[in-house]
Structure formats: C-alpha cells, structure tokens
Amino acid sequence: MKVAIAGAGMAGAYLYRLLREQGITAHIYDANEPTSCGITSCGWGAVPTVEVQRLISRFLEPSDYELQRFREINIEGVKIKGDMLTIDKPRLIKELLDDAEVRFDPLDTGMYDRIIDATGVVRAFLGPSTIPPLLADCTQYRVRTDQPKELSINISSLGYEWCFPLSDNEYHMGFGNLHGDAEGYTLPTDIMAEVSVCCNCRAKVCLSSPEGTQPFVVGKVVGVGESIGAVAPLAADGIVYAMQTGELLIERWDDPNAYAEEVLRRYDWMNLERRGLNRLIEGRMPLLEELRAFLKHTRMAGFDMRMRHAMYFFRRMLKAASARNARPQQTA
Ligand SMILES: Cc1cc2nc3c(=O)[nH]c(=O)nc-3n(C[C@H](O)[C@H](O)[C@H](O)COP(=O)(O)OP(=O)(O)OC[C@H]3O[C@@H](n4cnc5c(N)ncnc54)[C@H](O)[C@@H]3O)c2cc1C
Predict the structure, then answer these.
(1) Which atom of ligand 1 is nearest to the CA of 13?
(2) 3-324: CATH class
(3) Which of 6, 96, 259, 320 satisfies CB 3.0 to 4.6 Å to 157 for a cystine?
(4) What ligand 1 atom has the least distance to the C-alpha of 240?
(5) Taking each helix axis from N to C terminus, what angle separates 89-97 and 10-21, rounded to the nearest 10 degrees?
(6) Which of 5, 239, 263, 303 to mutate to test the pocket of ligand 1 (most atoms within 8 A of CB)?
(7) Cα(7) to centroid of ligand 1, in Å?
(8) Residue 297 exposure: Cα atoms within 13 Å on the Cβ side
(9) Could you say which DSSP state residue 110 is in?
(10) What is the C-alpha to C-alpha distance for residues 56 and 92, in angstroms, rounded to an integer?
(11) Which residue has the least CA distance to atom 13 on ligand 1?
C-alpha cells in the first residue's frame, strides 16, 4: 500500500514512525511555511506525564525531550497540585522523522492508496468540517530572562495567557482567545522590560472537539491529530492526542470507519467540554456534566483540580468577557 502523510507536525511525525514499525514507509509532505523554530504550531506543555513518556518511549528515550517537570501550576493565583512536563517539541518531531525526506512539492493524490491528513487546522485533504470550526487565535513568544517565573496561566475573556518554563532562564509565553484579536497582543510592558525575545509567531488552535470536526474519513483520506479536532476545547492541549490518534488508527488500519467511531468514543469528554465552551461563548456557565468532563480531563492530565476551582475559573472568564463587551468599541 502506498501511503502519503500530509503534515510533518506532531501527529504526522508520530504516525510516520508507527507506520515504519509496521513495515510501511510513508512519504511525508509539509507546506513550506517554516517559523524560526521550524514548527508551525508551538506550545510545549505536555500532559499527562506518564502517557507522554509511554508514547515517546515506543521509539525514543523520553528523558531526552523533557525540559522541565512541575508539581504545581498557578492558575489565576490558585496553586493547583499536578504533574506536568515541558518538552522539546521541535527536537521530538525532528527525531521522530529520523531519516524521512520531508517533501515540499505538491502532493499528487493519484499516486497513493491512502492519504493521511495531518495538516492540523488546515484540513488540506479532508476539506472543511461539516460544522464551521471554532478556532482560537494565538500569539506566542519564546523569551529569555534571569528573573525566575513559575508555570502559570492567567484567564482572560474567552481565553488565557500562559507562561511555560523551558529552562531556568527560558520561557514560552503567549496569549490566545476566541475573539480573534490575538494579533495585537504583545507581552505586558513589565515583562517586556525584563526579557529578551528569541522568537515569536502566530497560530490557530481548533477547539471544536472531534464531534464538531467531522468527517474524519473522506474516500482514501483519513485524518489524525488536530485535523480531526483531537484537542481539549477548554485547555487547548493537543500534543498527546496528536500521538494517540495515530495509535488508534494503526490499530484499525484496515477499517477507517471503526477508527472514526473509536475517536468519537475515546474523546467523548472533549465533545462535552466543547458544549461547555459554547455556553461560555454565550455568556453562561457550563452545565454540571460539562464541568465534570473538564474535571475528568484535568484529573487524567494529573492535576488536582476541584469543582470549586473550575467554577471560579469560568466565573472569572465570564466576568472578563462581560467587561470586554461593556468597553466602547473602537471605530476606524
Ligand atoms: C499557540 C499554541 C499553543 C499550544 N500549546 C499547547 C501546549 O502547551 N500543549 C499541548 O498539548 N498542546 C498545545 N497546543 C496544541 C497542539 O500544539 C496541537 O494540537 C498539536 O501540535 C497538533 O498537532 P498536529 O500534528 O495535528 O497539527 P500541527 O502541529 O498543526 O501540524 C500540522 C502540519 O501540517 C502542515 N501543513 C499545513 N498545511 C499543509 C498542506 N497543505 N500540505 C502539507 N502540510 C501542511 C503544517 O506546516 C504543520 O507542520 C497549542 C497550539 C497552539 C496553536
């Protein structure tokens, strides 16, 4: 079987190795739009730690990619106990691809029996999802500073700002929201005064959930990773699910429709989170079952998040959204 993978990100690179393990050497294609680190969708916080280590250890030594490990995260001033890693995502993708030649010429679909769409939000080969996607706009910076900073998240209107330590003096900081106005975002002035910026870029993350990002199979095209909405809608983590969907596909390689059903079943909590997100967009609190799905996700991710924390965070988000709506709109 001749297989092409479109997209040399986390999902495409991991699936490339899974296929090679099965004796299939896929051709891998990417769009020639490199950022300075070569990775279009950044963000290097990965949870749950044990699952990240299991997935990487299938092919590589996990400790080679672990940058920092944390036992606590500060969300909006509340310290939540947990277990989280930051990983060297550019290096992990590069070394998963190993000796693969990444092609930048147009993919001739007629040459292949199966095409894997791992193009993330672009869905270049699956085509648009039936329901319009819910995309958060993000601006991110990699910075250096000698002022120590903790792993933290600050909630804003329909989004959040993050600070992920990559080493003792290097940090990944960014901002994303659903208002689509991250373009004008710069780091706060007090932070800018004390850091040197290594690089910055923009990207979108799909928060539609698998249920809202169908179809997953179109003729001989099958999607993995963010192209099929395998991202947690309320926290926007997708690195682990990009790898997991590759495993789910390999286990059902001969039956793509069974794969699609399994993705919907496995990530049913994402579908509930997405409904909770829809409610937040409408200015309302998520329902109890949607809050429970969020707590299930955070516990799976290794965080000791309680219902009172979740309620507090979402109330803060709604308050920020209503303050934003109350501000006079700028006219051109
Ligand atoms: C700013 C930001 C921060 C994030 N932070 C985190 C985080 O801290 N932790 C976490 O777990 N998740 C995070 N995420 C989500 C996570 O990065 C993604 O869900 C995950 O990397 C998706 O992997 P993917 O391979 O499916 O898609 P992508 O990483 O988007 O890769 C898609 C690839 O397809 C290529 N491509 C696009 N169009 C074409 C085409 N026409 N032909 C061929 N190739 C094409 C792209 O160049 C890219 O290489 C973040 C996302 C963003 C945007």
Answers:
(1) 25
(2) alpha beta
(3) 320
(4) 11
(5) 30
(6) 239
(7) 9
(8) 27
(9) G
(10) 9
(11) 237
Q: Is the dihedral of CA 30, 137, 14, 274 positive or negative?
A: negative
Per-residue pLDDT of the chain in tens (332 residues, 90 and over written 9): 999 999 999 999 999 999 999 999 999 999 976 666 666 656 688 888 999 999 999 999 999 999 999 999 999 999 999 999 999 998 999 999 999 999 999 999 999 999 999 999 999 999 999 999 999 999 999 999 999 999 999 998 888 999 999 999 999 999 988 887 767 778 888 888 999 999 888 889 999 999 999 999 999 999 999 999 999 999 999 999 999 999 999 999 999 999 999 999 999 999 999 999 999 999 999 999 999 999 999 998 889 999 999 999 999 999 988 888 787 655 43
CA dist., res. 38 & res. 296, Å (int): 34
Q: CA 132, CA 181: separation in Å to the nearest integer? A: 19
Residue whose Cα lies nearest atom 38 of ligand 1: it is: 119
Could you tell me if the CB of 157 is within 6 A of ligand 1? no
Model-level pTM? 0.95
Three-state DSSP at 151 gives coil
